[in-house]
Structures are given as C-alpha cells and as structure tokens.
Amino acid sequence: MVDVVTSITIDRPLQQVAPYAADPANAPEWYVNIDSSRWLTEPVLEVGSRVAFSARFLGRTLSYVYEIAQFDPLERLVMRTSEGPFPMQTTYSWEAAGPSTTRMELRNTGRPRGFFRLLGPLLGKSMHTANSKDLQNLKRLLESS
After folding, report:
1. Exposed, middle or buried, 83 (CB in 10 Å: 0-12/13-18/19+)?
2. Would you write out the chain's pLDDT as a tens digit for each of its 145 residues?
3. What are the C-alpha distances in Å from 13 to residues 10, 17, 76?
4. CA distance linking residue 123 with residue 131, whole number of Å
5. Which of 16, 31, 33, 84 has a CA between 20 and 30 Å from the CA of residue 138?
6. Sheet with 50-57, edge to edge strand ranges
7. What are phi and psi of 74, to 5 degrees?
C-alpha cells in the first residue's frame, strides 16, 4: 500500500488556487510527469465525470482514467482510477491559510500491481519527490500570475 501526502502554502487566495488546481486541463502545466489530459465526459467537475491522462513515471508511459468521486469546490477533490498497473486515489484539499494565502494538500493512495509493486518503498519516495515538484510548479505558476 502506498500513501503519500505532500502539502504547500501558496501566496494566492483560496478562490484562485482551488479552481486552477482542480481543472484537469491545467494538470499538464503544473504536473511534471503529466503529458496530457482529455475529458471523456462533459467537461464539468462533478461526481462521475471522467478524465483520461497520459503520464510518465519511473521511465514508463502510463495512460489512465480518473473518475471524480467527490468534489466540494474550494475544499476537496477526490479522483479514483481502478485500471492499469497502479489503481490509485488522488485527493486535493485546500484551506485558507490567511486572507490571500492557501494551503494545499496532495494525497495519493493506492495498491500498485506488477512492475510498480516490485518497487516497494522506492515507489512512495519517488511519488513524494514528484508531488513536491508538482506543488512547487503550481506555486510558481500561481504566484507569478
């Protein structure tokens, strides 16, 4: 089982951070390993919506579909995939850390299969490193706009 939690404080208001981070169309801009995202349903964030992603991780190209399991604007987004070598749940949570500052937490949990299961503890460490870079990218993008 992998459970990786990473957080960051972004010097932008919650009303700017949450909608940007939650929009799958923006994922390739701030995720280091995500190459593309594509809506499979109407492009609306709601429970049941589905988004296909293409990503690179540990030298492999992954294609997977996330289904929105929970969405509370300005508070939480939960996405799940049950397919592929790494069934996973990704949770974004946001909270105001001040009038113009937001704390964002990114959590990935899942049970890797096949090749990824063999990686054991290395997988969690690699995910934490990648997630930290992703959140730093998000911070840089939002704070420079």
Report:
1. exposed
2. 889 999 999 999 999 999 999 999 999 999 998 999 999 999 999 999 999 999 886 677 888 899 999 999 999 999 999 776 678 899 999 999 999 999 999 999 988 766 555 566 677 788 899 999 999 999 999 999 8
3. 8, 6, 15
4. 12
5. 84
6. 2-10, 101-110, 88-98, 76-81, 60-72, 50-57, 34-39
7. 70, 10
Cβ contacts of residue 43 below 8 Å, gap of 6+? 25
SS3 142: helix
User: Can you name the CATH fold of 2-143?
Assistant: Alpha-D-Glucose-1,6-Bisphosphate; Chain A, domain 4 (3.30.530)
Tokens standing for 117? Answer: 């299961």
Rounded to an integer, what distance in angstroms lies between the CA atom of residue 42 and that of residue 46? 10
